[in-house]
Amino acid sequence: MNRVLVEENESLSKQAIQLVLQNQKIRKQLKQLHCHESSVKLDQNGLSSTENSSDSVVTNIMNHQTLQLPRDAGPLRLAAIAEETLTEFLAKATGTAVEWIQMPGMKPGPDSIGIVAVSDGSNGIAARACGLVGLDPAKIVELLKNRPLWLSDCRRMEVVGTCTSTSGGMVELLYMQFYAPTTLAMPRDFYTLRYTTVLDDCNVVVCERSLPLSHGDPVLPPPDQFVRAKMHSSGYLIRPYGGVGSIVYLVDHMDLQPETVPEVLRPLYESSPVLAQRVTMGAMRYLRTVAHDVDGDSSPVRGLQPAVIRTLTQRMARGFNEAINCLSDDGWSSMPSDGMDDVTIAVNTYPVSRISQGQFLFCDRLPAASDGVLCAKTSMLLQNVPPALLIRFLREHRSEWADLEVCTDIAASLGHAPLASRRGVSCYGSAPLLLSHSPEQRELLELLQMDSPTVFQDGGFYAKDNFLLQLCTGLDEASVGASAQLVFAPVSVSVSEDMPLVSSGFRVVPLDSSLANEHEMARTLDLASVLESGGRIISPSADKGPTCPMRSILTIAFQFPCEIQTFECVATLARKYVRTVVASILRVAMALASNLSPPADLKQTPGTPELLILVQRMLQSYESHFGIELLKGHSESIDTLFKLLWHHPDAILCCIVKASPELIFANQSGLDMLETSSNELQTLDWQKMLDENERKSFCTELDEVLQRGFAYLPRGVRISATGRVATFERGVAWKVHSEMPECLAYMFVKWSF
User: Fold this and answer.
1) Is 729 within 8 Å of 719 (Cβ atoms)?
2) How sure is the predictor about 25, in pLDDT bands with cuts at 50, 70 and 90?
3) 0.90 surpassed by pTM
4) For residue 602, is it within any domain?
5) In 10 A of CB 413, how many CB atoms?
6) Cα first-last separation, the chain
7) Residue 523 near residue 361, CB atoms below 8 Å
């Protein structure tokens, strides 16, 4: 009986998924009928267009060019291509068609998004992710197929035509456009075939690849501002998993035509880890976030539902991408250069409804009651500055780069002279109000309150609170290929899903994303004091030498709402503002880089003096108690000894025993065992690191160390910050200083998860 029920359930599940796919197709057809637009005949075999809106790819992107398909591209030919794509995709998702290696920096655990791998030496760049998602297959298909919903890099996706395969699957022809991440390269577009079907085992597959060429020519030529990229067989395999959700396999395999970009940018377009971070892992994180919200674990934050926050963050990021790219079919046109060519100016005429009355620009002073917008943007190369570190500084020290005097000059040029008298007055008010912090999406959304502007009599300004909506991504992530950005837009106090947003900000993209030299990085650094005093404050985790991204591209884009007749004047002042910001950031970058990479002719200490003294006493007391050297045969300087201890294979910890031991130091192996960083080390609860048996024996071991000066620890376990159990073969504990009995050191030998 159970077997019959299982078979019946599988049959019903397959029928339900097929009905969902048919429902999606019917919805597309109804949308076409309601639009009352003429169908485009693609061939004589019945392949029909399903998307003919006013801004469709056929009429808008192609500038009324006729879509030319190959003569043999009827439904039967497309179905054959679809089946071939399916076979190739499955070989990548579950087989060995691509040589996969683990994504560097990814650690498995309860908080991990799943298993992530990247290609090693394959044609193009490729990434694969596998994870459990608490959603049913039909919902996952619906979310993933709507790529612009979860990928802010996807500018547009149009379904050009559809047909049905002989097996009942859906074949779609897609045209997609992807934003460029910097101002130094052109955006990419794709013309692909997408195939959605249900396999015999009830697994759902959505696979996709670029449509083959006909007689050597693209079937849909790319617009002038785009470079045609190629998508190899990619897609999603979704396996129902009991009643808890689905196991999802994601594969992205592309050729982004790196030969078309400047030499300095090619590593960005040849990096599989970058593709994994931007697309593959982004999709998996989005699914897990939606599943988390569906489970009801998320509650409204400041009155905003999770779906509203997702919409706002997506709009913020998409608006910033639009500012970086400034494409002509969005209404942008370039202004002549002033001869220096370092700052590009583009202008656009916006509908009045897009920018609300009383809003302010990124400089927090300029009213946005205007009929146009001007964008000033630039990109520059940085050396030895990790993206997360720079963006974190820009977020926390806005006064270091925002020039209020230039803002007041722009305000005066727009006819708001009373503002110009407020030179030198700080424009930043209270601390940011956190709206959302998503560990899954690795992003932070906050609201910044600014000081109110001066009231003047002519009716233009009045006293009110001004706010910036600010989106930060990549702040806590420095893994391979991860970029970081700070995006902000002026808003009113009543934050809503459909409020107008004019995004400006910064993006830092690492260029050196090799698989061998990138690792997660944690730092404790007083950035403000470094800039003010020129001093060096270095934490142990900063001493990673070449493990930090050696080169990165910083892209800056600021948008200035203004009246059309003031474009020339505002352009001059906008260039001045951006150049001032660039100069400030270069000063910051030089200070940060000097801390990370000291000159070769200077002998720098890899830690603070206090930490060096602590390590020296740990080594001396170990030799005193056990009669042997911890670092055998080494008598180099304390700098060298510190590095040797830091990279020692065994986990070495140091703590102060109070009511409960408080960790003050751990070498890299110790941080790995505890799955934490130097920043978070002191926040760990010692008792939570012990299991029940360890808690019982802890007091006995502690008494022995305090009385005898040292103790040998039997085989045991420690629980990491993520809840994983790390076992060690043996351990030792000893007093670090005879005059400070409360300072103890521990070493756990041959630990593993």
Assistant:
1) no
2) low
3) no
4) no
5) 18
6) 42
7) no
